[in-house]
Amino acid sequence: MSGDVRKIDRRRVLQGGLGMLVAATVPGCSFFDTKPAGAGAQVAAAGEQESPMLKALVDKGTLPPLAERLPKNPPVIKPLAGKAVYGGTWRSAMLTQEDTQWLWNALAYEPLVRWKPDKTGKPGYDEMEANVAEFTVDAESKVITFTLREGLKWSDGKPCTADDMLFTLLEVQCDAGLHPDGIYDAFASPDTGKIAKMEKVDERTVRLTYTAPQPSLIIQIADGIFLREGAYGMLLPKHYFQQFHLKYNPNANALAKKAGVGSWADLFAQKQNPWTNPDQPTLAPWKVTTPLGKGSAVTLTRNPYYWKVDDAGRQLPYIDACRVEVVQDAQVELLKVMNGEFGMQYRNFGTPQNKPVVAQNREKGAYRIFEVPTQLTNTMIIGINQTHKNPVKRALFANKDFRIGLSHAINRKEIIDAVYAGQGEPWNCAPPKDSPYYNEQLATQYLEFDEAKANEHLDKAGLKKAADGRRLGADGKPVSVTVLVSESFPDHVEAIEFVKKRWRAVGVELRTQAVSEDLAKERVKANDHDAGTWTGGTFVLPTGTGGDHYWVPTNDGSARYGIGWAQWYQSDGEEGVEPPAEVKKQLELFTKGREEPDPAKTLELGKQILQIAADQFYYIGLSSVPNTYGVAKNDFHNVPEKMIEAVAPGIVHPEQFAIGQ
C-alpha cells in the first residue's frame, strides 16, 4: 500500500465489528419484529399515517401526500414498547459545541449500512442490516455494490439517486482538492494504493471494484465514520453541493471569498457540516432549524420526506422536534438530568461516581435509568514512548523490565476505590473476556501491586539507586517520566497522582502535564513526549488505518508507546523509526488482516497480533471500565433497558422513540 493512502484525517471513533463473511447479501429487514403492534398503538396514533403537523401541510396543498414522499418499499421499524404517539420535543444536551458525536449518533445515524441493535461484535455480516441502501459483497471482498431504495427522497423532496452517491465518492471523498493530505485508504485497493473503480450501474445502483480485497469498507460505513463534519460522506445531495465544487462551478472560489474563507475546498467542508448549515438537505429523521453556534441550543424539526415507517405503515419519526442544549460543564448536565429536564440523555454524566445521585433523584426527576455496556477496554492506559528522540530515554523506555517494574509499582485497587467508586477490576490494555480476541496473558500480567517485584525488575533494567532512593539512568541522572494527560479525562488527572506516589516509592519520578486533547495529540504526533495516557478501546480487524488499534503501532491515534514506528509504517519506511523484528511482524499481520475476507482467518491473524503485544507489553493498563448509563423520562417511550455503546443511541432507532402518556 502506498504511503499516500495512509495519510488520513484522524478521528475518535469506537470501531465496531470484528470480521467479514466471505460473501453476503443483506436484506433490508429491521432488528425489530415486524408483527402488528396491537390495538393500543393503533389507538395512540388515532389512526393517522403521518404526524398531524405534516398532514396539515398536505391538507393545505403545501406538501405532497405521504404516498408520494415515501420510497416504494420503506424499511419497517416496530416501536419497541408498542408506543406509537406522534408529537412532542425531544430535549437533550451536548457538552460544549465540540460534542457533535451526540448529534450524529442520536439524531443522524443513517449510514448506507447500519449495525443491528443487538450487535455483539461477532465476525461477519450477520450483525449488519441494509439501511439507506441494499448491498452485496463478492466472495473476495473486491466488488461491493450498493442499491438505493427506490423512490428515496432528500428532505427537500428531490430524488436521491446513484448520481448523488457517485458524486460523493468521486468528487468529495476522492477529490485531491478536498483531501490534500491524501485520499482515505478505504477507497483504494490495498495492493496498488489506487482508487477503486466506481461506476453507476443504473439509476439506483453504484458498484465499487477493487483489485485486492477491501473488507473494511462496510464495517466503517456501519460505524458511521463517514457521517461527520468536513468534506466527507458516502451519500450527499449533488443538486445542492455542486454549487460549491470547483469542478461544477468555476465561481466556487469567488463564493468562498465572499463567505470569508480561503478557498472553495474550505467552503465546501463548511457547508457539508449539517449542524452549522441548516440549508443542507438530509436523509435523517429530523433537519436542523437552529444551527450550532446560533444561540444556546441546536433545534431540529421532523423531515417530511423521512423514509421509514412503523409496523402499521405510519411514517416515522414519531417525535416532531428536537432541542439539544449546549452546556459548558458536565456537572451542569448532571444537574439537569437530576431535575428531569431531558427526555432522553446519554453520555458525559454517566460516571460511576454520579450513579448514586442519579438513581436517588429518579422519582423527583420522573425518569428511569437504562444501561449502556461499554466498548472501552481500560479506564486508563499509560504508553511509554519507546521511540523517544533522546537515545538514553529511548533505550530505557524500550526495556521491558522497566515497564514491568512500573506496572508492579501501581496500586490499582486504591485507584479503583478512590477514582472509580470501587467499580472495575485490575486489568491491562486487553480485550475483555467475552471478546473473540481475548488473551489472558495480555489481560492479567504484571497487575499485582508488589514493591519488591517492582524493584527487582527496575534492578534488571540496570537502574541503580542513589543514596536518596532515586533511580539513576545510564547517563547518571535521576530517572523521570513526564506523562501527558488530556484534560478531557478528568479521572486520569486524578488517577495519575496515585501512580506518581507509588512510582516515587520505587525511585522513579513521574511528572504530569495536563493539557488539552488537541495539544496532547500534537505532542504525540511530533514525537515530543515521554509518555501519555488514554482510554483503551476495542480491537478490530479488518478496519481502517484511522482506527485506534492500541496493540499494533499503525497510527498516531493509538501508538503513544511507539509513534516513530507508526510513522515508519504509514510512510513505507521513509519516515519515523524502523521497528524491531517483533513489531514488524505485527505490522505485516495487521496489513494482511485488513485485506482478509475470511472471518476465521481474520480472527486468527488478530490473535497472533495480540499475542505479540502480550509478549512485548506495550501499554501499562489500570482497570476494566464500568458500564455507563443514560436516563429517559417516564413519558419517553421505546428506549430499551440496555443498549450497546456503539453509535448509541442511534443503534436502537431513535426514529421510533415516542413521547406521551
Automatic annotation (TrEMBL):
Xref: Gene3D superfamilies: Dipeptide-binding Protein, Domain 3, Periplasmic binding protein-like II
Solute-binding protein family domain location: 132-556
CDD domains linked to this entry: PBP2_NikA_DppA_OppA_like_4 (cd08500)
Location of this chain's protein in the cell: Cell membrane
Pfam families for the chain: SBP_bac_5
Descriptive protein name: Peptide/nickel transport system substrate-binding protein
PROSITE patterns tied to this protein: SBP_BACTERIAL_5, TAT
One Gene Ontology cellular component: plasma membrane
Membrane topology of the entry: Lipid-anchor
Superkingdom, taxonomy of origin: Bacteria
Species whose genome carries this gene: Kribbella steppae
GO biological-process terms attached to the record: peptide transport
